[in-house]
Specification:
Blueprint (H helix, E strand, L loop, with lengths): L5 H10 L4 E3 H11 L6 H15 L3 H13 L6 E3 L4 H11 L6 E4 L2 H11 L8 H14 L1 H6 L3 E4 L4 H14 L1
Parallel strand pairs: 1-2, 3-4
Amino acid sequence: MPFSGKSEAVNIAKELDIPVIRMGDLVWKEVEKNGLELTSKNVGKIAHEMRTKKGKDIWARKTIERIQDMHISHCIVIDGVRNNEEIEAFKSVFGSNYLLVSIDISDEVRHHRAMCRGRIDDSANIDDIKTRDEREINWGIKEVMKKADKTFLNDGSLDSFRLKMKKFFTSI
């Protein structure tokens, strides 16, 4: 779910020199291409419109194209899977080398963190945050989380979460 700690996990991967592709960056690029401001509402609108017009796996297909252009032959982290169709797109290309990871956290803690984060496409309004949650649940994120090969609970300190993620990334 949004604000669960995915960005922090991505930061750990980057620190370990693991390449990262954030699917949201592809959405941001599309938002800018459409001449829109990078807001939570516009990002959600474009992400949804593209899924409706071009298929629920559009962002996975764009991510796969980008990975293939990068000619990466080792581990890569993909941040932002939102639905089963995206999982299937990745599995069709990467097969058993695809590992789905979920980060779980209580809604209360997640919403508190959301109010504090301040990324460009974030809202500090709790109603907007809940609307975003509903949008992503409708896209299928809860089903994705259930299918995870590995789930990390992010209910403690930032240091303990960073340590968990560092151990995980170095183990694979």
